[in-house]
Design a protein that fits this description.
It is built from 13 helices and 14 strands. It is of the alpha/beta class and 306 residues long. Bound molecules: ligand FO1. The site of ligand FO1 has 16 residues, from helix 2 and helix 6.
Length: 306
């Protein structure tokens, strides 16, 4: 069994890559991006995985349902509501039913499992916690939800701080802990270390469990050189005072992983990373199509003899 820590819009590629090798895949999902919108609970990272595995993800955007319509949002506009967060009609149904189930006393884990069944997704998808965890960004003197900073303000402001509100009180999902313990391999997907993976590691019990199991934890880089190849990881790393390079990433993950996958273009930094007691494997890490997703997962499985 392979367990993947996933968050952001790029992680689905790594998940699909492993699933294409007939591996039993369990996904632990970030919930720090979850956002209340018009009374609906939106869980972008969970939904991207479920939509991606069921083949209905809008691949171009990396979120939402492909060919979705926007009638609901248009009507909200008529009602004078803000519509900067673009939820499509089918996508809204997901958020609405989830919210109803929450209101009826179900927890997010059970709802997510039910959702997987409805979308015929075989992999297990486990929210890192059923408690509230919210990634907030301090920018230009304002305290913003990640979605407000990233979507409403288009990530334009200076990042003055990143906070995982609720992480200190959140209990890790017991199924997520078991998924780390029972896995042959734990993969940290090439997501944003600060906003996609960081919130999960901000929960004490999660970081502790990864550290305990670090021998089988491999982190895949979201960077090539000093740039992230999808999403804004570089901008957040810089703001957090982390060197924007695979070495900076290795320092950030040093206590939780024993192996790192970097791009061959970054090979020159391998020995420096090895100095942190992390084994380095290099290959082509950019997953531009399904073949590349499978190739990267296949490379990892082969190198680690799984
Ligand atoms: N990202 C955007 O850039 N603009 C949007 O309007 C937007 C809407 C949206 C609706 C549902 C959903 O699940 C995700 C959505 N996202 C949107 C993506 C989201 O902001 C982030 O990319 C994720 O939170 C990162 O994982």
């Amino acid at each position: 069994m392979i367990t993947i820590l996933a968050g952001g819009t790029g992680s689905i590629k790594m998940v699909r890559g492993f699933a294409s090798h007939d591996q039993e895949v369990t996904v632990i999902s970030n919930v720090g991006d979850n956002y209340w919108l018009y009374g609906m609970y939106v869980c972008p990272d969970i939904d991207t995985i479920i939509y991606g595995l069921s083949g209905i993800l809008d691949e171009e955007k990396g979120w939402g349902v492909k060919k979705d319509t926007n009638n609901f949002l248009r009507q909200m506009e008529v009602f004078g509501e803000d519509t900067w967060f673009r939820v499509g009609d089918r996508d809204a149904a997901t958020h609405l039913i989830r919210t109803n189930m929450l209101k009826n006393g179900k927890n997010l884990s059970d709802i997510t499992q039910w959702m997987c069944e409805k979308f015929a997704v075989e992999s297990k998808v486990i929210p890192i916690t059923d408690n509230t965890l919210e990634t907030r960004i301090k920018s230009n003197g304002e305290d913003l939800h990640l979605q407000e900073f990233w979507v409403k303000h288009r990530g334009r402001g200076t990042i003055e701080g990143i906070e995982y509100v609720g992480a200190d009180k959140a209990r890790p999902n017991p199924d997520a802990i078991s998924a780390i313990q029972d896995a042959e391999l734990v993969v940290i997907a090439p997501g944003n270390p600060l906003t996609s993976i960081g919130p999960m590691m901000g929960i004490k019990g999660v970081r502790k469990e990864l550290t305990k199991n670090k021998k089988k934890v491999v982190a895949v880089s979201p960077l090539i050189g000093n740039k992230s190849f999808s999403g804004p990881a570089d901008k957040y790393m810089e703001a957090a005072g982390i060197e924007v390079s695979v070495f900076g990433l290795a320092q950030f993950y040093a206590d939780v992983c024993s192996k790192m996958i970097i791009d061959t273009k970054d090979k020159a930094l391998a020995s420096k990373i090895q100095g942190l007691d992390i084994q380095v494997l290099d290959t082509k890490i950019k997953m531009q199509n399904k073949a590349a997703e499978g190739a990267l997962a296949g490379f990892i499985l082969k190198q680690l003899k799984l």
